[in-house]
Write a structure and sequence with these properties.
Layout lengths: L1 H5 L7 E5 L6 H9 L6 E5 L6 H14 L4 E4 L11 H5 L8 E5 L6 E3 L3 H18 L11 E4 H6 L11 H12 L4 E5 L1 E3 L10 H17 L11
């Protein structure tokens, strides 16, 4: 994945957030850093702190180091690095964040079993009904944000740590008036790694989204520094 992203172009750097992975992730990254010290970056954390907190750490790192556009994506090749420029293009033409979407015209899933397809589409419909967001793939995890979006959101108020994190980020950005667009992608079943989906993550998404919507009537995601 590191090689594939770097090959997209000189403007793309990579940040890996590693929560003490037992598979030697950090060691591999450090080895690659020797060849590309200015383009490959690593945050090492102790313990499993959750997907959402890893993204938040990455966003804060990107803001601190002056990046104008920040992507999030899976590292198992479900998301194609060649799609990075396609997600970036709309942000250079008036949009604030773009979503690599499976469920808009031209989007697709590849090698998915029927039960996973049903679960994903059902979750997307549920989220749209509760949040009223006009986003067809609200659980998508392939996103490009303008720096301004992440600076305006109070990232410390993002409470979800599982896959519902993706929903809360989109909801907070849109509630603050930022414009989104869905870019069709083909989401392939993972080439490497195993899924971290669990009953707790599913429960967080079901009940958490409802609580998030209710709280939005009285609480703002806006950062006090923006």
């Amino acid at each position: 994945m590191i090689s594939a992203v770097l090959e997209v172009g000189q403007d793309y750097d990579v940040l890996i957030v590693d929560d003490g992975s037992p598979d030697g992730t950090a060691a591999i990254v450090k080895e690659r850093q020797q060849a590309f010290p200015d383009r490959i970056h690593l945050i090492e954390r102790t313990g499993k702190l959750g997907l959402g907190t890893a993204y938040i750490a990455g966003f804060k790192y990107g803001i601190k180091h002056g990046y104008d556009f920040l992507f999030e994506m899976d590292a198992d090749f479900s998301h194609n690095p060649k799609d990075l420029p396609r997600l970036l293009a709309p942000l250079e033409n008036g949009f604030d964040f773009s979503i690599g979407s499976r469920y808009v015209k031209g989007g697709a899933t590849k090698n998915w079993p029927l039960d996973r397809e049903i679960l994903s589409r059902g979750a997307s419909l549920y989220v749209r009904m509760i949040t009223w967001m006009p986003i067809k793939d609200p659980t998508a995890g392939f996103i490009c944000y303008k720096r301004e979006v992440l600076e305006t959101i109070d990232l410390d108020k993002i409470k979800f740590v599982g896959y519902a994190f993706q929903i809360e980020m989109k909801f907070s950005a849109r509630s603050l008036g930022f414009k989104s667009i869905e870019v069709p992608i083909t989401f392939a079943d993972r080439i490497e790694g195993t899924s971290k989906m669990s009953n707790g993550i599913i429960s967080e998404a079901i009940w958490g989204v409802l609580k998030m919507k209710i709280k939005s009537f009285t609480n703002s995601y806006r950062s006090t520094d923006s």
